[in-house]
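Lecture 7 notes: from sequence to structure.
We start with the chain below.
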Amino acid sequence: MANTAPNAKTRQVMVGSVALGGGAPCVVQSMLNLPLADVEGNLNQINRLQEAGCEVVRIAVPRKTDLDFFEEICKKSPLPVVADIHFSAELAIEAARRGAAKLRINPGNIGGLEATVPVLQAAKAAGIPIRIGVNAGSLDSALAERGDLTLPEKLVESATAYVEFCHSQGFYDVVVSAKAHDVPTTVATYRLLSQRMPEVPLHIGVTEAGTLFQGLIKSASGLGILLEQGIGDTMRISLTDDPVEEVRACWTLLSALGLRRRDPELVSCPTCGRCQVDLIPIAQEVEKRLRDVHRPIQVAVMGCVVNGPGEAADADIGVACGKGSGVVFAHGKTLRKVEEAAIVDVLMEEIGNL
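Predicted structure tokens for the same chain:
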């Protein structure tokens, strides 16, 4: 049974106006994928992400020349913006001054513990948290070469050392991620992290998960395991695709686990020889149109009387199909019978009437 209670053990930090950890619901994130110089394009993408349900956005800041664009995006963005920084403590410091709601730095390439001190000071002065983002592919070389530790242990060791250093400097608004591209390593790492540092909020994800199909399978299997165990205060499903698909995937996974509901859930049967309508395109069209509906309702599309109102009786609304027709029902009660060609239109009309 899913652990539907948010993790109350972790320290709560604020990313702009968004609460993360400390009993808050798991926060949905995504990352922008346009050059910073395209300020208008980035803001349009943020608006699309917000409409899809994104709560926090991250953007890479690779060069000093990007800082003016980053500052403008932060000022105009309706969502908190996280600055993703690699290789330069100076960039992280300046991003904190320019409006970042949170910093993401990588222990493997930021320049060592001492280089982190002014970054912590800048974040503290700005009143923003820092994510310590450890990746399997960019571990500190001395740690990566150790033969006495497994990869999950190396990732946890790296993250733990940086968190302890942050605490020693009086900085406690820390979030941790420790990602790998394969599911078993990711799951093992986050389980170990949650045991070693139960008070630290965790950003969960499978990095470099792949294109839409593979990325969804890998992310859902890994993050589903973790979320069911109460591990994860914020999440990103990383896909080589439109970032909006990442947000839709996050919400679908959270909904499937009973953790958060925002959009409709489509329940549809896989079809068989009993089906007497062309169900697959009907279900696909319903799914497409439901993207514009932002209500936590359950919609059933069933191909025959076997998988009809009986099995879908708990759905808010649905259709059970017969020979060239369908019966539209709500909460188990018949509303009307319609011809096959009208099923989608009538179903969407009745959804609007709920």
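Points to note: The CA atoms of residues 214 and 239 lie 9 Å apart. The two ends are 30 Å apart (CA to CA).
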